[in-house]
Amino acid sequence: MRLDDLFPSPGSKKKPKRVGRGPGSGTGKTAGRGHKGQKSRSGVSLKPGFEGGQMPLTRRMPKRGFNNPFKKAFAVVNLRDLNRFPPDTVVDEDLLRSLGLVKQRLPVKLLGQGEITVPLTVKVQASSRQARERIEAAGGRVEVG
After folding, report:
1. CATH value at residue 91
2. Which of 19, 90, 94, 118 has CA atoms 20 to 30 A from the CA of 46?
3. Residue 136: what are its φ and ψ, rounded to 5°?
4. pTM, whole model, 2 decimals?
5. 119 located within any domain
6. Interacting residues of 73 by C-beta distance below 8 A, sequence separation 6+
7. Which tens digit of pLDDT belongs to each residue from 49-58?
8. How far is CA 100 from CA 87, 88, 103, 138, in A?
C-alpha cells in the first residue's frame, strides 16, 4: 500500500450543505435559519444556558450548603474487606486494585468498619484512628504515606 492508493471509505465524505441558493434547493431564502430573531443574524454566539435576558435557570434555583473546594476525595476500604488475606501479607494499593476492592483512581483511605482477625501490613495514603488501632491489636501495622 502506498500513499497514492489511499482513499476515503464510501459514505465517509459528504459534500457541505449549500444554503441560500434559491427556492428549488430546499434551503433557499432564509438558508435554514427560520425568520428573524437573534439566531437568524450573522455573528451570533450565545453562551450555553443563555435565556434571552431572562434570569437563567442556574441562577433561579436556590443554593444550599457549602462546597469545600479543598476537600480531598478518597477511595474507601474497610477492615472487614481485609480478612480475605493470609497472615503477614503486605496489602498495598496495587493489590487492592487488582482484587477490585478499589475501583477509582483516588488515594486509598482505610476505615475501621468491621473486625480484623489476621495480622497484616497495610500501606495506604490515609487511615482512621480506629482502623489503625484494630489492625495493631490484631498484630499488624499500618504505614501511611
Report:
1. 3.100.10.10
2. 19
3. -65, -35
4. 0.57
5. yes
6. 106
7. 999 999 999 9
8. 20, 20, 6, 24
Strand partners, 109: 76, 126
DSSP summary character for residue 83: G
Collect all residues with Cβ–Cβ distance below 8 Å to 44 and sequence separation of at least 6: 38
- C-alpha–C-alpha distance, residues 12 and 106, integer Å: 40
Number of domains making up the chain = 1
Whether 77 has a pLDDT exceeding 90, the answer reads yes
Distances from the Cα of 16 to the Cα of 19, 62, 137, angstroms:
9, 45, 72
- For 36, half-sphere exposure in the C-beta direction (CA atoms, 13 angstrom radius) is 0
Sort 142 into a burial class: Cβ within 10 Å, 0-12 / 13-18 / 19+. Answer: buried
In a domain, 42, yes or no: no
- The Cα 13–Cα 24 span in angstroms is 24
What's the average model confidence in pLDDT over 95-118? 94
> By residue range, what is the domain housing residue 138?
79-144
